[in-house]
Design goal:
10 helices; D-Maltodextrin-Binding Protein, domain 2; Arc Repressor Mutant, subunit A; two-stranded antiparallel sheet; globular; alpha/beta; DNA-binding; 2 domains; 6-stranded mixed β-sheet; disordered C terminus; transcription; Putative LysR-family transcriptional regulator
Length: about 300
C-alpha cells in the first residue's frame, strides 16, 4: 500500500523541482527525503525517478503517480473535513494568512466575530505577500489564506487548492495633488515608488506600465501602502495603490488605472466543508461586505482625480 506521507513528498518534488527544496519545506535532510522516495518506489513496484548525480527526473510511471497522488491527497483533505463536520462546533487551531492591507481592514472584524461565535477556535494570523500564499497552503503552514492576483498578472490554476471570491478592487495611480499628471502615460519620465521586487504588487506595476509602453523608473521600494501614500504626498514619486489601501490624503490625487486587484479566500482542495474553514470563510465575507457598506456611506462623489477607496 502506498504511504500518503510519501505521496506528499512526491508531489512536492514535482512542484519544487529538487530534493533539497523538498527537504527544506519539511525540515528533513535531503538524505531522509531520498530514503522516503526510495521506499515509495518499493511500495509502487516500479521506478518513479531517474537519478543523474544530484539531479532527479520523473519516469513515465512517476508522472502517472504524481497525477493520481493529487487526487488521493485531495480526497484525504475532504475526508478530514467530513470527519470534523461530525462535531457540533468548530474547534482547534486555524492558521490564517493575509496580505497587510487586509490585516488592517477586513480581518479584524472577522476575528472578533469568530471569537464571539466560535470560542472553540484558536486563530493564528500570519502576514505574508500574496505570492507566497499558495505554497504556504500546500505545505500546510496555513489552513485558510487570502489568495490574490491582478487581471494583468493572473494566478495560475493549482490542482491542490480551491478558493471563493472575496474582493474585486479598482487600482489607482497615486500622484501628488499638484503634479501635472492625468494618466499613466504622463509618468513615463517620473520617479516611481514600487513594492519590493518579487512581490505580486511589484510584478503588477511592471506589467501595467509595460502595457502603457514604458518601464517605470524606481526611486523607492516600499511595501506598506500608508508609507507609499506619504511619500507620494511628499513629492517622492508616483505609485499604484489598490482601492482597499487608498486612504484619503489631501496632498494626493488618485487616477483610475485600467486594471483590477482580485482577492479570494483560498484553502486546500477538499477542505471547504471543514467546519473551521467554513467558519473563517463566512466571517471574512461578512466583514468584507460590512466594510463595503461603511465605505459607501461616507464616500464622496468620484471623479478621475478624487481620493476614494472602497472594496468592491
Amino acid at each position: 500500500m502506498l504511504d500518503v506521507r510519501r505521496l506528499r513528498l512526491l508531489t512536492d518534488l514535482d512542484r519544487l523541482g529538487t530534493i533539497a527544496a523538498v527537504a527544506a519545506v519539511h525540515a528533513y535532510t535531503p538524505s531522509a527525503v531520498s530514503q522516503q522516495l526510495a521506499a515509495l518506489e518499493r511500495e509502487a513496484g516500479v521506478a518513479l525517478l531517474q537519478r543523474t548525480g544530484r539531479r532527479v527526473r520523473f519516469t513515465a510511471a512517476g508522472r502517472v503517480l504524481v497525477r493520481h497522488a493529487a487526487v488521493v491527497l485531495n480526497a484525504m483533505e475532504e475526508t478530514t473535513a467530513a470527519l470534523a463536520a461530525v462535531a457540533s462546533e468548530p474547534t482547534g487551531l486555524v492558521r490564517v494568512g493575509a496580505h497587510p492591507t487586509a490585516v488592517r481592514t477586513v480581518l479584524p472584524a472577522a476575528l472578533v466575530a469568530l471569537g464571539r461565535d466560535h470560542p472553540g477556535l484558536e486563530l493564528s494570523v500570519s502576514e505574508l505577500d500574496p505570492i507566497a500564499v499558495p505554497a504556504a497552503l500546500r505545505d500546510r503552514r496555513l489552513d485558510v489564506a487570502l489568495v490574490q492576483d491582478y487581471d494583468v498578472a493572473p494566478a495560475a490554476a493549482d490542482p491542490m487548492l480551491e478558493s471563493v471570491a472575496l474582493l474585486d478592487e479598482r487600482v489607482y495611480l497615486a500622484v501628488a495633488a499638484d503634479a501635472p499628471i492625468s494618466d499613466l502615460a504622463g509618468t513615463r519620465d517620473t520617479a516611481w515608488i514600487l513594492s519590493t521586487p518579487g512581490t505580486l504588487c511589484h510584478e503588477a506595476a511592471l506589467r501595467v506600465c509595460r502595457a502603457a509602453g514604458f518601464i517605470p523608473r524606481a526611486r523607492h521600494h516600499i511595501d506598506d501602502f500608508d508609507a507609499v501614500l506619504a511619500l507620494v504626498a511628499a513629492g517622492q514619486g508616483v505609485a499604484l495603490v489598490p482601492e482597499l489601501a487608498a486612504a484619503p490624503r489631501p496632498q494626493v490625487s488618485l487616477i483610475d488605472v485600467p486594471t483590477r486587484r482580485r482577492t479570494r479566500i483560498g484553502y486546500r482542495r477538499g477542505a471547504a466543508a471543514h467546519p473551521a474553514v467554513a467558519a473563517v470563510v463566512t466571517a471574512l465575507r461578512a466583514s468584507a461586505a460590512a466594510f463595503e457598506l461603511v465605505q459607501v456611506s461616507v464616500r464622496p462623489p468620484v471623479s478621475s482625480t478624487d481620493i476614494a477607496g472602497r472594496p468592491r
